[in-house]
Amino acid sequence: MGHSDSVGYSIFVVKRDGTEQQQISYGLDLQPEWSPDGTRIAFTNVQDSYHPQIFVMNADGTHRHAVTTSGANSDPSWSPDSRELMYDGYSSDSPTANPSRIFRINADGSDARALTSDGSDFYAFSESWLPAWKPTP
User: Fold this and answer.
1) Which residues does the chain have with pLDDT short of 50?
2) Max CA pair span of the chain
3) Which of 36, 62, 68, 88 could form a disulfide with 75 if both were Cys (CB 3.0 to 4.6 A apart)?
4) How far is residue 95's CA from residue 22's CA, in Å, rounded to a whole number?
5) pLDDT value at position 20?
6) What CATH number is given for 27-129 in this structure?
7) Phi, psi (deg, nearest 5) at residue 129
8) What DSSP assignment string belongs to 27-52?
């Protein structure tokens, strides 16, 4: 990810040796996460700083689409099979009205469901509460 005054926060891809840098997003895109299969990138778009949303795009920057469209959402994390995402979010437009929860959603934006309940004692910006996938035995 890079930043410049002319493009805001944008996502770049580059080869491991540092060559062939390519900007694949323009605007206010943060927290990029590669899908485990390497074909897509999930990220948080903060165009509306009060209502950040989760987006997904192909690894080359094409087919960008919103996965979430309401509330305030951030910190996407891919499932090991690249079919689902977990993210941290508020289900209402007011983070002070209800606490942050962890959600799970299909990568196409369908079937969003909360994994934690309202009333949890954690908040979105606590690093210890960011969503992460764990292998099951």
Assistant:
1) 1-7, 119, 121-126, 128
2) 48
3) 88
4) 35
5) 92
6) 2.120.10.30
7) -115, 15
8) EEEEEEEE-TTSSEEEEEE-SSTTS-
Q: What angle do CA 99, 51, 104 make, to 5 degrees?
A: 60
- Distance from C-alpha of 34 to C-alpha of 60, rounded to nearest angstrom: 11
**Which residue is associated with the tokens 């689902």?**
84
Distance, in Å, from the CA atom of 112 to the CA atom of 85, rounded to the nearest integer, reads 9
- The enclosing H or E element of 8 equals strand 8-10
CA–CA separation, 40 and 62 (whole Å):
9
Written as six digits, the tokens of 16 are 């491991």
Residue 82 CA to residue 93 CA, distance in Å, equals: 28
58-89, pLDDT tens digit by residue?
A: 999 999 999 999 989 999 999 999 999 999 98
CB-CB neighbours of 135 under 10 Å: 5
Length of the chain, please?
137
How many CB atoms lie under 10 A from the CB of residue 72? Answer: 23
Between strands 84-90 and 72-78, the pairing is antiparallel
